[in-house]
Design a protein that fits this description.
1 helix; five-stranded mixed β-sheet; Immunoglobulin-like; mainly beta; single chain; about 120 residues
């Protein structure tokens, strides 16, 4: 899923993550939103947060298969996309710089979940 914007991500807002100002512009004259976002806690847990090298997922519903996980940086660029198939999965984030990122998870039914994470690269 590509985020629906054509400029750098100056500001972002949704019902779960809330309002986020990327700080690359003095004004939030362009705010990116994604339609209906579900609370990630309804899907499962992500840990640890902040992250240094590996992000762990534990899904509440083991029957949910082929969940697409997208990692976006604060500029709205898709840094990594991974498909997870099991209820307990780890994703290697070594080599990704420190900063604030957004996890957007999508299932085959078109549902979306979002969570803001912090990466503290070693």
């Amino acid at each position: 899923m590509e985020l629906p914007f054509t400029q750098r991500l100056r500001c972002y807002q949704d019902s779960i993550i809330g309002f986020y100002n990327a700080g690359i512009s003095p004004a939030c004259d362009f705010v990116t939103t994604i339609g209906h976002i579900n609370n990630f806690e309804n899907l499962g847990t992500i840990y640890p947060n902040p992250i240094s090298s590996e992000l762990n997922f534990h899904l509440n519903n083991p029957l949910l298969s082929e969940l697409e996980i997208n990692l976006y940086n604060s500029l709205g660029q898709n840094i990594k996309t991974v498909i997870i198939y099991t209820e307990n999965t780890s994703i290697d984030l070594i080599g990704i710089g420190s900063g604030i990122y957004f996890i957007i998870a999508n299932d085959k039914a078109g549902r979306h979940w979002a969570r803001r994470i912090i990466i503290n690269a070693p």
